[in-house]
Amino acid sequence: MSDLGDHPVNEGKGGLDSTRIAEVKAWLVSQFESVGKDVPEFEYTPRSISHLHSLATISQAKTQAAGIVASDLRQKAMEYRSQAARIREILQSVGLAQEGLPPNAVTSVQVVANVANLLNIRDTEMSSFLVAMADISLRKSGVEEKRANAQKESKLLLDYTRKAIARLTYLKRTLGQLEDDVATCEGQMNHWKTNLTIMLSKERQYLLQYSNYKALLNRVGYTSDISHGELVEMDEHRKELEKKTKPIMDTLRSYQDLPPDKALAALAIEEKRRQYAAAEKYLEEVLHSALATSE
């Protein structure tokens, strides 16, 4: 109990410290003398004096309260003993003393007394028993209702637990399947990645070809505005021009069998050239007209 870190209390500094120290010493002496021991020596410090004074105050208050309760209980015990003696005298006067009763009657009386004590009633009147039994019945009904609610909640919790366990089992099985599929999925992803690289290369190649074809079509005068009908019409003009130029080409081929007259052959060839040039000019005019109409 020694507190070496604090400084000793100077009893001469004030009356309050001396009074508290005296109260603490008196309380310690009374407590140790009650168990047959001497008060051990220790250093009185402000901290220890404050703590011990607080304990002494609480102990004295509880001791005083316990004395009051004990006195009241002793008074009640005396009253109960006097009342028991009076009741014993009354029972003996009417011939109902415990010594004169048969054993079964004594046993019945003891049972009634035990039941009264169990029911916490002060008498053995029928009304008191009925009130106590009614109170027990009400408490029993309340307990049964609480037990039914607890069983219902327990059943719900059990159902939730079973569902949670089933769900956990399903999730674990799904996780195992996913872990098994990881290798397959990784291989498939690598395959798709390789294909994607190839497709990107093809895309660049096709875009380049598209640009080249678009430039080629622009050079020949083809635009996206030319419809299928216009192409069909231009093809018909081409066929008509072929019909017109075919006799000329046949005639030119027949000149290969003529006798070698250079002057006539030159004149004939020049004529056919003019006709062929006129046909080509007509074909160009028709094409340009079709393109202009589409624009």
Automatic annotation (TrEMBL):
InterPro entries: HAUS1. GO terms for cellular component: cytosol; HAUS complex; microtubule; spindle. It is found in: Cytoplasm, Cytoskeleton, Spindle. It holds the Pfam family HAUS1. The keyword Cytoplasm applies. The keyword Iron does not apply. Keywords: Cell cycle, Cell division, Coiled coil, Cytoplasm, Cytoskeleton, Microtubule, Mitosis. GO terms for biological process: cell division; spindle assembly. It comes from the Eukaryota. Belongs to the HAUS1 family. This is HAUS augmin-like complex subunit 1. It comes from Papaver nudicaule. The lineage of its organism: Eukaryota, Viridiplantae, Streptophyta, Embryophyta, Tracheophyta.
